[in-house]
Amino acid sequence: MSVRYISLEPVNLKPTYSEFDTIDFDVVYAGRKLALNNIRFAATIATPNATVATGALRTDNTTTDFFMDNMVGAHAFIQQISTEFSNAGAKSGVAESLQEYPRYSKMYYSASQSANDQNSSASACELRSPNMKFSNVLLRGGQTGKPAANVYIATQKQTLANFSVRPRFCLNSVSSMGGSPMLSERQVGRCRISIRLARFEDVFCGSDATANITSYSLSNVRLLYQTYADDGQDMPIVMRTKANIKQNVNGNAITLNARLPIQANSMTASFFPVADMNSAKLNTLACQEPPAMSRLEFSFNDSTNAYIAYELRDRNSILQRAVQSIGDRDMTNDTTLANIKNNDQYIIGLNFGNFINLARQKFSVLINSGIGSNAQNYTLYSYFHGIMEL
User: Fold this and answer.
1) Given 140, 239, 269, 273, which residue has the most CB atoms within 10 angstroms?
2) Which of the 8 DSSP states describes residue 276?
3) For 270-296, what is each residue's pLDDT tens digit?
4) What DSSP line would sit under 147-209, residue for residue?
5) Reading across the β-sheet that carries 307-312, which strands appear in turn?
């Protein structure tokens, strides 16, 4: 089959895009098939490293306190990613609208990869790196010559940092009995992918993120994908979808309830202090452990309407259930308890064992902890993993 490599510009084309901008792509593959699991979002970081000699990251040395989360990299630019199909019928409309996407990426990579795993070409193109200091160097882009005493000389030629990420959304989380999954226009009609860029404080962190650098912009923004000749046959495919909610936790014993329009088989969540959410100095993607977590209880009705409850009190059991919940979503890495511990992150979650309709049944989490005892509230970010068949 003939293959075409497409570099698609946004519908709402602009020279640069910044925080809170929405970028729309109308994916074109009429008369052909769209190759799934390898759709990429690419751009150049026009600022803060800038194109002029006085760029903030261009003249400072490598100790500049300005970073991206090294496990998330350029995924942090995508605050929300939505996929919409135009086909009439049951599969029309929004197939997935995933908000707080960088935090989901943080949980997945923290559970499935180690710091050493970031020393690969697959990670480098996404600006993921072994540590935070390394991320500072990546943000500077390429520069000729060798810096003296770690000082980058402004007069030397510099190329801007750029990235190409494979977002972990529904069109990149597909399986098919026919091998490499592909999508025809007959199945879903036209496809629009919309990306809303994250605010500055959720992308960058460090003291210089407030003192010297306070904004960013992306240029040369594009969507990269491949299409193949249409053979006229449509194989059934299964997309893994996600839905998320965030809720405030302000007491030492609280029950959280969720109803969502998704057929889900697992749930994964993480915490972050409410008071620190607007700080550019802190890494707002960190999955922090709340104080004195003593008990978790998950309860729901399964597919046969039988009441199920899981009670967890041991820290290792809580983390083990969590890594099982996020699981191996694209068959490239295994989530492990060792990874989440070595990366110093804390997540909770549960694999339900079967799919339940959360639009009809309530899913509840009872949390006993020290939250609220020191007047510090937390936000709980919950992600539910489901499927959609095409």
Assistant:
1) 269
2) G
3) 999 998 988 888 999 999 999 888 889
4) -BTTBPPTTS-EE--EEEE---SGGGSEEETTSS-EEEHHHH-SEEEEEEEPPHHHHEESTHH
5) 253-258, 363-368, 295-301, 307-312
